Every structure is written in C-alpha cells, then in structure tokens.
Amino acid sequence: MLDLVFATNNAHKLEEVQAIVGDSFRIKSLDDIGCHDDIPETGHTFRDNARQKTDYLFSKYNVDCFGDDSGLEVDALNGEPGVYSARYSGSRDMEKNIDLVLERLARKEDRTARFKTVISLLLNGEQCFFEGAIEGRIIMERQGEQGFGYDPIFIPNGYDKTFAEMSAEEKNKISHRAVAVQQLATFLKEVLKR
Ligand code: IMP
User: Fold this and answer.
1) How far apart are CA 77 and CA 42, in angstroms?
2) pLDDT, tens digit (0-9, with 9 covering 90-100), for 65-80
3) Which of 24, 131, 151, 169 could bridge across to 147 with cysteines, CB 3.0–4.6 Å?
C-alpha cells in the first residue's frame, strides 16, 4: 500500500477520497504526518492555491501528496467569489457571503455560475492537475437545508432543486469535487499498472 498525504484535516473529504481511490493507497491527513501549519493559500486561481499546498508539503516533508481548492464562479460577477469563496464578505460567515452574492446579482439577468475544484498531485516528483466543474445558476433566495457553503443558492443544470435540497449521496455523484476526485482516482489506478 502506498501512502499519499492529502493537504487537509477535513475527515469528511478524506473519507470520500479514500472510498473513491480504493485501498491501494493509504490517504493520510496533515495531522497524520504531524503538520499543524497554516499552509499559505495566497494564489489568484484555484490551481495556484492547490499547487501551493503540494509544493509546501513536498518541500517540508518530502512526501507524495495532493491538495485541492474549490469555489463558486459567478459569470456576471466576473468569476467572483472564486478563490475568495470562503471569505467573500470579509468574514467566514456563510450567511453574509451568500447575502453578498445575492445582493451583487440583484439587478443582473445572467445568473449562470459553476462550482470548480482543482486538485494538484505531486507523485514521484511528477506534478499533475485534475479539474472538476458543475455548471448551474444562482437563484433569487435560499432553498434547502443540506450541504454547506453556497449550496442553498445553486441549482445545477438539468435539476430543479438546489445542492442544499439534495442528499449528500445525490450531490456527491455530480459535484465538482467528485468529478475531480474521480479523475485523480483514475490516474492513480493507471500509475499502479506502470
Ligand atoms: P474548499 O477549497 O473546498 O475549502 O472550498 C472553499 C469555499 O468554496 C468553501 O468555504 C465554500 O464557501 C465554497 N465551496 C466549495 N465547494 C462547495 C460546495 O460543494 N458547495 C458549496 N460551497 C462550496
């Protein structure tokens, strides 16, 4: 079994990735390798931020690793909140962040948006990126109680309910994160065959 460090301590993300990747790889958290640092995320793109995480881990711990960065891109807001999704209003309060998106979209006709995830992988010194996106639109008011982040205001194309009105299982089949993780898993399975 090969060890692969995931630049996160989010147990839910770890479990999800481990389940998709299978048991040929042991996915370790930052805690597992004794990393308690606040890894910088100062990039202007999801790719830059994901790369920062793996560069940091590789330079400090010399481990095979991957890291992700995600967020919401709203077309009429020139791609905002983007890399600032977690703190768009200046705080991590998601109620305020959602209010700000709704306020800035109030007089806009185009409400198209997408969630995106970029994963950076550093394996045997080789750098790869995997991307997942789900297209949809921002509705006028919150709907639904499940999920997190901007889920209550995002309806994916082909659906008539928000991410926050879906079960975790239903969302995880189509989410940006699931698409990116699936690509990572496919790549890792190929690596094992080499
Ligand atoms: P992270 O890079 O996965 O931590 O995501 C950064 C921020 O993007 C989160 O704090 C959320 O505000 C937003 N975000 C990412 N993925 C989702 C999602 O699946 N639903 C809702 N919001 C999300």
Assistant:
1) 20
2) 999 999 999 999 999 9
3) 151
